[in-house]
Design brief:
With 267 residues, the protein is mostly beta strands. Helices cover 2% and strands 64% of the residues. It contains one helix and 13 strands. The protein has a 13-stranded mixed barrel with strand order 1-2-3-4-5-6-7-8-9-10-11-12-13.
Length: 267
């Protein structure tokens, strides 16, 4: 049994605390042994900040994950939510829940199935449902670094509002929400480097789009994460993630990014 406990700290910059299994897939692929007995791991996190302006503004972040591994099977469930409240009103709400199943994931080529539910009021995304699968190939699998490529397809339903769209881009004063359904191709490039002290650095590039317009109008999402190991079980993590959508469903800015920082204690 493994538990991950997320510590909250106050320092000279603000930490965004996220529950996570640190590079769980990269580290798992690097192992040659197969676990005969079941292993369960999980984590929870909570971050709470208060900012006094004209009104009190509360920032609440919660998250958690649960992973189950047995022999060649690996199941992972993750969920997170960030809410910003001003007075009695909830201003922003962003989060996701994701379930993944990996089979024979220590081999060079293995399948993955996933379902996801997502919401991001910051960008106007009220709901997003996704289900699909990938075939992942591990081209480099060393103790210190791994490089893999995943290729697959998924079906998604997105429901967009206009709250994040500037008034001069709206077709009418109160445009109706937009609902779309697409089948998309998906490409993921992933590189992870593990230092001798177990600190990790990873780069990921997601590319997804409809097959009939893959070259012209993809949705590209880069991600870079560094986990510094401070002591035996204590890590400090910082990550950059962005989205560049060549043809947004509603006319929001094409590029969106965020920085996240975390302090993680695992045992």
């Amino acid at each position: 049994m493994k538990r991950v406990v997320t510590l909250l700290i106050i320092g000279f910059f603000s930490f965004s605390v996220r529950a996570q299994i640190i590079e769980f897939d990269a580290l798992a692929i690097a192992s040659d042994s197969v676990i005969d007995t079941a292993r369960l791991s999980g984590s929870v996190s909570l971050s709470f900040d208060v900012n006094k302006q004209d009104e009190l503004v509360y920032y609440i972040k919660t998250g958690g994950n649960l992973a189950y591994e047995k022999k060649k099977h690996f199941w992972v469930l993750t969920a997170n939510n960030q809410a910003t409240l001003e007075g009695d009103d909830q201003v922003l709400n962003t989060g996701s829940s994701n379930f993944r199943y990996l089979w024979n994931f220590r081999s060079k080529l293995f399948p993955e199935a996933l379902v996801q539910y997502q919401w991001d009021v910051t960008r106007g995304l009220r709901e997003r449902y996704l289900a699909g699968g990938n075939l992942q190939s591990t081209f480099i699998n060393k103790k210190s670094h791994q490089f893999s490529v995943s290729l697959g397809a998924f079906y998604e339903n997105e429901f967009w509002g206009w709250a994040a769209v500037p008034d001069d881009r709206k077709p009418t004063e109160n445009p109706a929400p937009v609902s779309v359904n697409f089948v998309k191709a998906n490409l993921l490039l992933k590189y992870a480097y593990i230092l001798k002290n177990k600190s990790t650095f990873s780069l990921r590039l997601f590319v997804q789009a409809r097959p009939d317009s893959y070259i012209k109008y993809p949705r590209i999402a880069p991600n870079a994460t560094i986990n510094f190991r401070l002591v035996k079980n204590l890590f400090i993590s910082t990550s950059f993630s962005g989205i560049y959508d060549f043809r947004p469903i509603v006319p929001i800015d094409k590029f969106y990014y965020q920085w996240e920082n975390a302090l993680i204690y695992s045992f």
